[in-house]
Amino acid sequence: MIGIVTDYAGKRTALPAFLQWSVKRTDGEPCDSFSVQFACGKKTASKLEGATEFQAVEAGKVVFTGIVDDFELRLGRDGALAEITGRGMAGRLMDMQVPAAEYVTAQLEDILNAYVRPCGITKIEAVEMPPVQQFVVQTGATCYQALAGFCRHSADIFPRFLADGTLVLRKDAHGKTVWLGEEILQAQYVRNRYGVAARQVLINTRNGSMQAADYAEFQKLGGTRVQYAGMTGNKIRASFRTAKQRLDDAKRDEKLLYVTAPGVFLAEPLDMVSVKLDALGISGTFTVQEAQSGCDETGATCTLILR
Q: pLDDT tens digits, residue range 23-44?
C-alpha cells in the first residue's frame, strides 16, 4: 500500500514503504480510522509537522482518505520509526463545535452550507430530503451532530464517507456480495442483550404526551428492559431521537459476527457477505458494518464486522 500526506499548504508527499499498517472503514459510526508505521529518516519530522490529510492507495485504487490526528517518532532497538494515526473525513465534522442555531424549516442545503462545506467537505453525494420543522442545533454541538441529526429526522439516513472522502447522504445501498468459507482464519459471534431495550418510551415534558416503540422479537426472547427519555416541547434538537430510532440504534450492535480472512480490502461497508460456519451453527448472508484491513510481520488480513 502507498501512503500520501498533504500539508496545510496543499503539498503532497509520498511516504516511505510501510512496515505495518491498518485501515478501518465503517458504515458511518464510529468514524473511519488508520494507522501506518515506517522507517524514520532525518527529515521525517519536518515533513510530518504540517501534515493535515492522509490518503492510501492499494493496487492503483484509493482505499482511504482522512485526516492526520497525530504522529510519533521513536528510537529503539529496531532503529528510528515513525507512526501516523488519524480518522476518516468525518473527523473534520466531529472536531468543529458550533454556536446555537434554530431553523423554522431546515433544508438540506442549509445544513450543508452551515456545517459541512465550511469544514472542507466539498465532495457530496446526496438524495433529496424533506425539510425538518423546528430544527435546533444546541451550543457546543459538533458539525457532525448537526448533519447526522438532520439526516436522521428528515429521511432516517446515516451519513457516511467513501474511501475517496466523498460524503454520502442516501439510504443504505447494498454493494457487492462476497462469499467466505474455508479461508476464514477466525470467527466470533456476539449476541448482546445488555443495553437492548424491549420497549422505548419518549415523554414530552411540557405536555405529558408519550410515544412508545416495542421490540417484539426481543420481548419474545425474554427481554424486559424499558427505557424512558424526555423531550422538551416540539422542537427537534440535533441530538434527539424518536423512540423507534432509539430501538433501531441499539439493534445495530445487537447481533454481530466477526470474521478474519487472509488478504486485504475483501469487502466494503454495506457489502453483503455470505458465511457458512458449521462449527458454530451459523450460516447466512450478513451486512458489512465495519471492515478493517492490515498488514504486519505476520501477514495481511481483513477483519469484517457483520450484522
A: 999 998 879 999 999 999 888 9
Buried-exposed string 212-251: b where 16+ CB fall within 10 A, e elsewhere: ebbbeebeeeebebebeeebeeeebbbebbbbbbbbbebb
pTM value? 0.91
Length of the chain: 307
Which grid cell is 239?
441530538
Q: What is the CA radius of gyration of the chain?
A: 22
Cα–Cα distance between 305 and 252 in angstroms, integer? 11
Q: Which of 72, 17, 81 is nearest to 48 (CA)?
A: 72
How would you class 47 by CB atoms within 10 Å of its CB: exposed for 0-12, middle for 13-18, buried for 19 or more? Answer: middle
Amino acid at 255: K
For strands 226-231 and 199-204, give the pairing. parallel
Q: How far apart are CA 58 and CA 307, in angstroms?
A: 26
